[in-house]
Design brief:
Elements lengths: L6 H17 L18 H16 L20 H10 L8 H14 L2 H13 L4 E4 L15 E5 L2 E8 L10 E7 L9 E6 L9 E6 L8 E12 L3 E2 L5 H12 L23 H10 L1 E2 L2 E2 L4 H23 L11 H25 L17 H12 L6 H12 L7
Parallel strand pairs: 1-4
Antiparallel strand pairs: 2-3, 3-7, 4-5, 5-8, 6-7, 9-10
Length: 408
């Protein structure tokens, strides 16, 4: 029991612990990628969907949402389920975009009928979601999106091009920011939920983008005269920018509703890119016949990463105690920035420790740690870009938290 738990939360924590002890899945039948954003095969997806569905049926997903929309109707209990799943080293959930971004956006801005229809299958993982924000000409300047919807009675006809769309190759639904008025930059944006799987070949084309890792988690999505009903619009016409801010706050970890997270299962199929594994790697890799960990300069660099990792963990604890927060957004936004950069810097040191062996790919019997560290390093750049680049994140912290003047 945590010191912060109420009696109700303590009972729920004990329930989670007991259920996870009895139901945590065993060794995956297939190799799992480092994160759900790199899911490539139906076999990977099926295994992870089955796990999310069982956790949802047990009440460990959607805990803090109302029962009417498929949630558990609890109060501040999703963090407890998250903590216990991490403690049990469970697999991650595949519907990461649905849980972390689509669910709170639909909940806060959707009509009741839409919430009741979409959210239960989102929580269970039966419907995978993707995010249609970035475009070839609109990345960091998100308000410049040009995908356009033309009204036709009670329907909208959508044309445009989205890119870097993670999980679109498996998604049933997309949260979509588009333009409904070309005369206003911000007020001309509107926000929709779109059933893209049902429209494949009938107004929607999904094309995989091959990454440097050889994996295809990213996609581009092309809309050609796709018709959607006006009931799929979230909030008022022209309020798309405000709705998108709800999505981005939750994507950056600063939203009110807790996002279900699970991960850390150690097996031949997964690998945690943390300093504990980095230390083990340094102890096993040889330099001039001696363990790399004997190098005092390397040891100092690794300890600096341990300090950063522990600092992040303590900040995440502080973020759960409102009395310890000097600004409602600072720690959450800061944690997204730091977590992505710590992961990248840890993986960079690991690749350096491996030396020439870092060129060996997954599955090579001579690859240290199964080739996972080079994969982690290459994938890490996506995380320092997603939800706003590190540079954008620093600007947001400077302007909105510290009150600094906007940069030109």
């Amino acid at each position: 029991m945590s010191e912060q738990d109420t009696p109700e939360q303590a009972g729920f924590r004990q329930y989670c612990r007991q259920w996870l002890h009895a139901n945590t899945p065993g060794e995956p039948p297939v190799r799992l990628p480092l994160s759900p954003l790199e899911i490539m095969t139906e076999a990977q997806l099926s295994y992870l969907q089955s796990w999310q569905k069982s956790a949802y049926d047990a009440g460990l997903v959607g805990c803090d949402y109302p029962v009417a929309v498929g949630g558990g109707g609890r109060s501040d209990c999703q963090r407890i389920a998250n903590e216990e799943m991490i403690r049990a080293r469970t697999p991650y959930f595949p519907n990461v975009i649905g849980l972390g971004m689509a669910a709170p956006t639909v909940f806060y801005h959707g009509q009741d009928a839409l919430k009741e229809r979409l959210l239960p299958r989102l929580f269970s993982g039966e419907d995978i979601w993707c995010q249609g924000f970035s475009e070839p000409g609109a990345g960091s300047d998100l308000a410049s999106v040009q995908t356009f919807a033309q009204r036709d009675g009670d329907k909208w006809v959508i044309n445009g091009h989205k890119v870097w769309t993670s999980l679109a190759h498996f998604a049933e639904w997309m949260i979509l920011l588009l333009r409904t008025d070309k005369s206003h930059k911000y007020d001309g944006l509107s926000y929709f939920v779109v059933p893209i799987r049902a429209a494949l070949g009938k107004g929607v084309t999904v094309r995989p983008l091959i990454k440097i890792t050889g994996e295809t988690g990213f996609n581009e999505v092309i809309f050609e005269n796709l018709e959607v009903d006006d009931s799929y619009r979230l909030d008022e016409l022209g309020k798309g920018w405000q709705v998108a801010m709800t999505t981005l706050l939750h994507e950056r970890g600063a939203g009110e509703l807790q996002t279900p997270r699970a991960g850390g299962m150690k097996s031949k199929s997964t690998h945690a890119t943390n300093t504990a594994n980095l230390i083990e790697l340094a102890r096993t890799m040889l330099r001039n016949g001696r363990p790399a960990s004997d190098d005092p300069l390397l040891r100092d660099r690794i300890m600096q990463m341990v300090i950063r990792e522990q600092g992040l963990a303590q900040n995440q604890r502080r973020a759960r105690v409102s009395a310890l927060q000097d600004h409602p957004l600072r720690l959450q936004l800061q944690n997204k920035l730091l977590a992505s950069e710590i992961t990248q810097d840890t993986a960079a040191i690991a690749v350096e420790v491996e030396g020439a062996c870092a060129s060996l790919y997954l599955g090579d019997e001579n690859a240290p740690s199964g080739g996972q560290w080079p994969m982690a390093y290459m994938n890490s750049y996506g995380m320092t870009i997603a939800a706003g680049t590190s540079e954008v994140q620093r600007n947001i912290l400077g302007e909105r938290v510290l009150g600094l003047a906007k940069s030109k």
